[in-house]
Amino acid sequence: MIDWSRVNSLRMEIGDDSFDEVVEIFLEEVESVVSRLRSDPNPAKFEEDLHFLKGSAWNLGFLDFGALCQEGERLAAHGNAAKVNMGAVIDCYAESRVAFVAGLRKRDGRITAA
Asked: How many domains does the chain have?
């Protein structure tokens, strides 16, 4: 679900303080898009939204979430936005977020994002 080697590489590349900031920004921005997709889905924007989520997900090691976003983006790009299983995308994000935050806390106890 989470590519911890990617997470560790990113942390080493940018340092602990910057990593904490990146995580905070990532969670805020992704949560904003996911919240909108949950409450007011607009199939005309699925390709754009899923592209953004995919890039964000893979940058921070959210493998399964990124893969679902990629599949949904592909469907939307080919005129099949109605076939995107947005419920699965949203659920996967929620599960990935829980695993990610728990994993960070377990690893170093420094991240307090909830």
From this structure: 1
Sole residue written with tokens 């905070």: 24
Residue 109, SS3 per DSSP: coil
Is 23 within 8 Å of 107 (Cβ atoms)? no
Burial status of residue 35 (CB atoms within 10 A of its CB: 0-12, 13-18, 19 or more):
exposed
Query: 79 in a domain, yes or no?
Result: yes
- Helices and strands counted in the chain (H then E): 5, 0
What are the distances in angstroms from CA 49 to CA 17, 25, 42, 59, 64? 28, 17, 10, 16, 17
Domain-located, residue 114: no
Per-residue pLDDT tens digits for 68-96: 999 999 999 999 999 999 999 999 999 99
Domain limits for position 51:
4-108
pTM of whole model > 0.85? yes
Residue 60 near residue 93, CB atoms below 8 Å: no
